[in-house]
Amino acid sequence: MRVAVLSDIHGNWLALLTVLDDALRKERVDQVWCLGDVVGYGPYSLECYEELRNPEWHVSLAAWIAGNHDWGLAGRIPLDSSMFRFEAQWALRQTKMLASRDRDGQRRLEEMCAFLAARPTFAASPQAGVWLMHGRVKSDGQGGIDERANVTTEESYICYEEDAWKAETSWAVMSSLATDETQRPGIILAGHTHEQLLLHRLGSRDWRVYPLPETDFSPPTGWLEGCPRCRQDGLCHARKRWGQSIVLPGEPVLINPGSVGQPRDGCPAAAYAILDFGRYRTQVTFKRLGYDVQGTKYALARLAKTAEGRPDPAAMATYVETLRTVLARGEYQADDKELYT
After folding, report:
1. Range of 304's domain?
2. Helix (H/G/I), strand (E/B), else coil: 47
3. Alpha helices for 153-275 (secondary structure H)
4. Which residue has the higher pLDDT, 16 or 80?
5. Most exposed of 2, 144, 244, 256 (fewest Cβ within 10 Å)?
6. What does the pLDDT read at residue 52?
């Protein structure tokens, strides 16, 4: 079985279409799993939600959990939380306000919010031994899960080897919930950080960044504006593992497929991952795809409207400008690296 793992789409419909086309038509995956944050930041939250539920793709969207932006839009967590950047709060509020201006938009919004509100922030996948989470899984101390803490605290991010204790506690909680040995987590799929990552568990609280193959790889076909780190020589040295398959070890691993719609690792190309479950081995392929970044940048203007439908110059100069810069750079500014989502 081949599975496309998507996360952090963030209302970027053009990036999502590129990823789905690659996964379903070129890679011919059997299922799609979503790790949350379909909405927010981008100009096409409704369209991304509806695209993932589009039956014309003829593929099983077999697993779908929620992220903090999904729950924020759906009203399960407050938008004024300090864990939302100002432009994130603005984009979600604008999405709700603009969709509510007509009856059809209101109906579509209500359907989307009801669906997202019902999604958990972590779950066992359809494949035995594989678990999904948006951010770190935290116990509530009473045998259950504190799902709000999974997506609303600074400790919800798993980024580096220094975060080994978060990976370990998540693994331990999932292990305690496993109904039998086959359900114990051998693979944890996580989103939230907008960066691709593969961690390998060597022992208790000892998770290491797994060594990845390094081969020069040209920018992906169809890339329109290039990578900020690759313009000098035309080769992408920022991320050398595009399209490289990695056979997973027998010990537990944590995989972050990266962000479809708003990468933050210094490369703006859309990111996702493919899991191949074979009879004797499982492998992961990290993928990056060029898409119409300029199209999404221009479309962000559709969010900068007043309740009356007029353009909002102040929003264009602040929120929209910031979001356009993030898309083009593939990251927030160097002096704005707080792990707020």
Report:
1. 2-120+205-329
2. helix
3. 164-177
4. 16
5. 144
6. 95
| Residue of 27, 63, 60, 9 whose CA lies nearest to 274 | 27
Specify if 306 maps to a domain. yes
- Residue 148 within a domain: no
DSSP bridge pairs for 122: 133
- DSSP 3-state of 17: helix
Q: What angle do CA 224, 228, 231 make, to 5 degrees?
A: 75
Contact (CB, 8 A) for 301 and 320 = yes
Token pair in block for residue 219 = 């920018």
Backbone angles phi and psi of 190, in degrees to 5: -130, 150
DSSP 233-247: TSSB-S---TT-EEE
Question: How many angstroms separate the CA atoms of 19 and 290, rounded?
Answer: 9
In a domain, 258, yes or no: yes
Contact 151, 134 (CB under 8 A): yes
When divided into structural domains, the chain yields a total of: 1
- The reported pLDDT for the residue numbered 221 is 55
- The answer for residues whose C-beta is within 8 angstroms of residue 10's C-beta and 6 or more apart is 37, 38, 39, 40, 41, 42, 69, 259, 260, 261, 262
* Residue 305 DSSP class: B
In this structure, is residue 169 part of a structural domain?
A: no
Percent of the chain that is helix, strand, coil (3-state, to 5): 35, 20, 45
CATH number for position 32? 3.60.21.10
Distance of alpha carbon 157 from alpha carbon 136, whole angstroms: 6
The percentage of the chain sitting over the pLDDT mark of 70, rounded to a whole number, equals 87
What is the distance between the alpha carbons of residues 134 and 172, in angstroms, rounded to a whole number?
Answer: 16
Place of tokens 């898409």: 291
